[in-house]
Each structure stands twice: as structure tokens, then as C-alpha cells.
Design brief:
The chain is of the alpha/beta class. The protein has 14 helices and 14 strands. The chain binds pyridoxal-5'-phosphate. The site of pyridoxal-5'-phosphate has 14 residues, from helix 3 and strand 6.
Length: 402
């Protein structure tokens, strides 16, 4: 028998995502001077465009770091040792951030909404209303938790917190949502947001950035967890010394790559980028719903409003998720995301879940290809499933593309 995995392999995991050929070509070049010239201009223009993407006119600091570095940057600037934080989670990314903050000396109060539903704003307000002496310095939460694919309504949360007059800063992890799900930092009233290069921004891992508003800048001027490398203040100045912006050597090639991916987003139009993600996400959901009509698969998040547009977590009660992933990688040329953090005692390998990423540089043909391969895999494994999945997904793509 032939093996049908030969051809361009597709890594359909939620980060790192597919790096477009254009971005790869932009990075394939000799090193620029890091003291003056073109790189400084490229870096200036990136700062302007990242702020536009985040929907903010305030401050932005870039770090040579992955997402965890972004987390540490935020915690270091926002808190002093012993400050209290309300750390909301809908999956293991929220939990991981809370653990990191706690490890840095923050007094973390966890508030979990499980792994299948979005934030219940009422329960957040309950906690904040009980905090009459305003000990919570900040509320930490994720826009999208990439493990569960839960998306939170950040605009409502921000409005509700302001509504009760609690001064806590709202700090949001947008690593898996920026460039996939609509996000408007200033219009929604978010104080601090962070993101990274390797998901919706279509670049390799290695750049994290933090946007912070005036309220956060002032509230955090005396935060004592700040160390010289993580301090966001010297990094914000376009007018200052260039080497301060990255606290050392600039991440040269990453900046060229990011410049190209930001150009791609601008050419497509941010609104169109969001609606492409929305259409492709709906195609994936409709296929899973059709397969799962007999219970073999199930979307992890029941409420469509609470689903991420860049990644879908799928439950497989027969716990054959690992087998399915391995079959797709070895026999179809597609790598799916693992059921990260979805395990319990009866399923230590998280085989009861897998994820399809549709984040960043993803077209109809890529998404429909993955879905067709999942259907092949279900067939190869002898998993009986509902019919019509690919037709439904194809119809959503044809009715959504101009
Ligand atoms: C990927 C991700 C992270 C962690 O990023 P790393 O680059 O792996 O450190 C944190 N939060 C969210 C929501 C993510 O999707």
C-alpha cells in the first residue's frame, strides 16, 4: 500500500502555526546593522502596527521571549511582592499563568470556570464586591484559552468591573486570539494585554509584546517585582536609545518576519482576517457536529459565542484521540493538536480530546483538507460517525467566500 502522507506536511496545531512563505522569505537575509538604519525604521513601524492590531493608542513593549516570557513581563511590571491577584481560568493556560504569578511572589486567588465554559461575570463581581478594601491589584484572564478553546467576552467583563467601581487592573492574555478573534483594548477598557508572535501573527516563536494603558503605567510605577530586563518603561520609547527597546541586541530576523506578516494582515484587512477565521471556525464546528451526531465526537464548548475562532477542542469519548492524531500524522500528512490539559485520572494521556488549529495563515483548502483527513482517519480506525460533515463544511466555505 502507498503512504499518502508525502507532500507538504501541515502542522495544524495552535502554535507555532504555519509560517507563510512570504514571512520565511523576509527572514532569509543577511543581518542588518542593529545600531542605526533600516532596522530602526522597521521596528518603529512594527510598534505602530501592533498597537493598531491590539486596538490601543497607549504603550507597547516588545520582548525577545515566548508567551511565558510575556506572562512574566506582565507580572513583573504589574505587581509588588504580596500584592493580590484574581486569576481567572478556563483551561490550563489560565492555570499556568496563575502558577507563574504565584511563583513570583504574587498572592494569587484562583477563580476557575472549568474547561468548557466562559467567564460568568456575576461570579467575578461577587469576588470583587467582597474585596471592600480593594486588595486585588489586578484581574488576570485569557481572551482565549488555547487548551479548551473557550473564548471569554472581555468587553462585558471590563464593563462590569468598571461598573462596580473596583480599581483592579484588567490584564488579558491575547496570545491565541490576536489576529483571529476581534479584540479592542482601548474601546473595551482593558488595561494590559499581551500577545506573542507564533499564533495568529504567523511568525516563529520568539517575540512577545505587552500593551499597557495609562492607568496601568501609573498604578505600576512602584511595582517591586520589576527587574531591569523585564521593566516595560525603557522599552516603550521610539525616541530613546534603540538598544533599550529590546534591552540588548534586537531580534533582527524576527522583526523582518513580523513586518511581513503585519503587511499581510493589512493587505487582507483586519476585519476580513477576523471574518475569515470566523467562517473557517464555523466550517470546522459544523463538520464536528455532523460526525458527532452519533456521539463519537463532541465540541468541547457548547455555546458558539464562547468558542475561539482560531482553535477547536474536540472531545472523543472513546478515548481514541491519540490514535487518530497518530494516524493523521503518519498516513495523511497532518499533525493535529494534542488534548492539552483535558485529561483526568481515567485518561492520563488526554486521548479523550484533540484540537484542530485554524489560526493565522489558514485558507479554506487547508481547513477542508484537515477535515477530510479527520474523516479518513475515523474511517481507518473504524470509528462510526454521522454523515454529511464535509458537505456541510464545504457549504459554509462556499457561502462565506467572496
Ligand atoms: C501559547 C499560549 C501561551 C504560551 O505561549 P508559549 O510561547 O508556549 O510560552 C500562553 N497563553 C495562551 C493563551 C497561549 O495560547
Amino acid at each position: 500500500m502507498p503512504n499518502l502522507s508525502h507532500g507538504r506536511h501541515y502542522l495544524a496545531i495552535p502554535g507555532p502555526t504555519v509560517v507563510p512563505d512570504r514571512v520565511q522569505r523576509a527572514m532569509h537575509r543577511t543581518s542588518p546593522n542593529v545600531y542605526e538604519g533600516e532596522l530602526v525604521d522597521v521596528s518603529d513601524s512594527i510598534i505602530v502596527d501592533l498597537k493598531r492590531l491590539a486596538g490601543t493608542e497607549h504603550h507597547l513593549a516588545v520582548y525577545v521571549a515566548n508567551g511565558h516570557g510575556g506572562w512574566e513581563a506582565v507580572v513583573s511590571n504589574v505587581f509588588s511582592r504580596g500584592d493580590r491577584a484574581l486569576a481567572i481560568s478556563n483551561g490550563i493556560f489560565g492555570e499556568g499563568w496563575a502558577r507563574l504569578a504565584s511563583g513570583m511572589g504574587v498572592d494569587v486567588d484562583p477563580l476557575s470556570f472549568g474547561k468548557r465554559s466562559a467567564i460568568d461575570t456575576g461570579r467575578v463581581l461577587e469576588r470583587l464586591e467582597r474585596d471592600t478594601s480593594h486588595l486585588y491589584k489586578a484581574v488576570l484572564c485569557s481572551h482565549v484559552d488555547t487548551s479548551s478553546s473557550v473564548r471569554n467576552d472581555i468587553a462585558s467583563l471590563a464593563k462590569a468591573i468598571r461598573g462596580i467601581g473596583h480599581p483592579a487592573l484588567l490584564v488579558v492574555d491575547c496570545i491565541a486570539s490576536l489576529g483571529c478573534d476581534p479584540f479592542e483594548m482601548d474601546a473595551w477598557g482593558v488595561d494590559v494585554m499581551l500577545s506573542a508572535s507564533q499564533k495568529g501573527l504567523m511568525c516563529p516563536p520568539g517575540l512577545a509584546f505587552v500593551c499597557f494603558g495609562e492607568r496601568a503605567r501609573e498604578a505600576c510605577l512602584k511595582s517591586d517585582l520589576r527587574t531591569p530586563y523585564w521593566d516595560w518603561n525603557p522599552r516603550t520609547g521610539i525616541d530613546g536609545e534603540f538598544f533599550l527597546r529590546f534591552c540588548g541586541t534586537a531580534p533582527t530576523h524576527h522583526l523582518y518576519g513580523l513586518r511581513e506578516s503585519l503587511d499581510m494582515i493589512a493587505e487582507e484587512g483586519l476585519g476580513s482576517v477576523w471574518s475569515r477565521h470566523d467562517a473557517i471556525a464555523r466550517a470546522v464546528w459544523s463538520a464536528v457536529e455532523a460526525w458527532g451526531s452519533n456521539g463519537c465526537l463532541e465540541l468541547n464548548v457548547a455555546d458558539p459565542e464562547s468558542r475561539a475562532r482560531g482553535v477547536t477542542t474536540i472531545r472523543m469519548p472513546s478515548k481514541r484521540g491519540g490514535e487518530l492524531r497518530r494516524w493523521l500524522a503518519s498516513s495523511a500528512g497532518v499533525t493535529l493538536g494534542i488534548g492539552l490539559g483535558m485529561d483526568d485520572e481515567s485518561d492520563p494521556d488526554a486521548d479523550g480530546a484533540f484540537r484542530i488549529a485554524h489560526m493565522g495563515h489558514v485558507s479554506s483548502h487547508m481547513a477542508l483538507g484537515v477535515l477530510a483527513c479527520v474523516e479518513s482517519g475515523l474511517g481507518a480506525l473504524g470509528v462510526s460517525h454521522g454523515a454529511g460533515a464535509l458537505e456541510r463544511a464545504a457549504r459554509i466555505c462556499s457561502s462565506s467566500s467572496g
